[in-house]
Specification:
The protein is built from 3 helices and 3 strands; from the N terminus they run H-H-H-E-E-E. The radius of gyration is 14 Å and the shape is globular.
């Protein structure tokens, strides 16, 4: 499955968790970004409410701790479930849905 975001879409996604006024989005590009391995593995989910993205996140069975496809130090080696816990990854909630009760 091919999945690509434009830089503008990545900034919109980052705005769910970072402040553009403080320059956090621009400075996060070195270590953050889209991790297509989570999508390819089928372990990344998006929750919508009335057509709006309320939140997203996933888990990984890979050694990489954080970051996107272009982040340095990535390791796609699978974890050993006999000794390694899965890693919670990229969990974000849109500010309009914080504290929201279904």
């Amino acid at each position: 499955m091919a999945f690509e975001l434009t830089p503008e879409q990545e900034d919109q996604f980052a705005a769910l968790r970072l402040s553009p006024d403080l320059g956090e989005i621009a400075s996060s590009r070195a270590i953050m970004g889209l991790d297509t391995q989570l999508i390819d593995d089928g372990t990344y989910f998006v929750v919508e409410q009335d057509g709006l993205v309320a939140g997203c996140g996933g888990w990984s069975r890979r050694a990489t701790l954080y970051g996107g496809d272009s982040s340095p130090g990535r390791d796609a080696a699978p974890l050993d479930p006999a000794k390694d816990a899965a890693r919670v990854r990229a969990m974000y909630t849109h500010p309009n849905f914080k504290g929201w009760d279904a």
